[in-house]
Protein 1
Amino acid sequence: MTEPNTVQETQYLTFHLAGEEYAVGILAVKEIIPCGALTRVPQTPASIRGVINLRGNVVPVVDLAMKFGLGASAQTHRSCIVIVEVTLDGEPTIMGILADSVGQVMDFSADDVVAPPIFGTRVNTGFLMGMGRSGSKFVLLLNIDRALAAADAETGVASAAATE
């Protein structure tokens, strides 16, 4: 018998950043919205592209490509914001991730996930839970809490909260 959470924990939403395919656990994803106007907040790190008004709440939007040192994401008609709930300092926090495009929901069994290599990825491997096998290629599985909890993401949350 399969435990109820087992299936959910193996599902990931894929999205593209700077030509690479990444994925986050589906349980962290709250919604996907079109990329609209972002309000830039002074003195925030460059990877915090701005904030949006999401049903009356100020939500910081992080450009993970910039945070990972891959350059700023260019906004196109396929760009979107993936709204995620992460845990920062023990508190659930809503944040947005700027994505070049969203892919699909994929299932990865434990056998499909391998440890990230210690070289060869353009992303700090501390931000990765592993790499999911998808046919002949791999999808980089992000530990979204860790990726967004780095110092510049926390600064962006604090700045966004100060503007409320």
Protein 2
Amino acid sequence: MKRMLFLITLVLWGQSLSACGQMAHSSQTEARQVGDIQAHRVVQVDWRAQLAATQKQLEQEPNSSFLHGQAAVAYDALGDFKSFEREIQTAMRLDPRNSMPCYMAYAVYKRKRLTDKQTSALDAALKIDPDNPFGRYEKASMLEDAQDFPNALKEYETAQRLLQRVTSDRNNLQKGRWTYIDRRGNHYDVTQEELQVSNDIVRVRTDIQDHR
């Protein structure tokens, strides 16, 4: 049985940072903070207060992709989808070489079952970083759901090859979990993908045989 997308991994991009009480704006520091989401700690956040604090910072730094991403997370938590979209699109526009805002959009669109927007966000993320095994795995899963088994198999096999790069580097093993780190320093927990992808490939190959 395919595993569900662990949405909290992406949504906590903002939540974990507010829990730390830090707002960094350099790429290196932001990446280090984003890595904290791998702890998967659930914390209580006053989202209205978080949004107000972020909006105040945006008055000083209106071109901060990171802060617009923070605002998007808060709006999503508050159920304001229109404002979420505005902020996440702004974050993507301001930092077009960073795939993390695309994955944030993807996670929300997937949760809301907005398939076209979900696909667009994932494709945008993979265009920025085609070597992300997390994204390739998600693409494979979407194709399988659409019963496009041949292309789903290709994506699962691509994800498997990319995961081998991750597991061959012991530096990517953090607290017992495999982590893919992109060029921007964003962290993606790919432990579940590593454990599951071989079974996925076998299952899809069987589906292809059954449909012949």
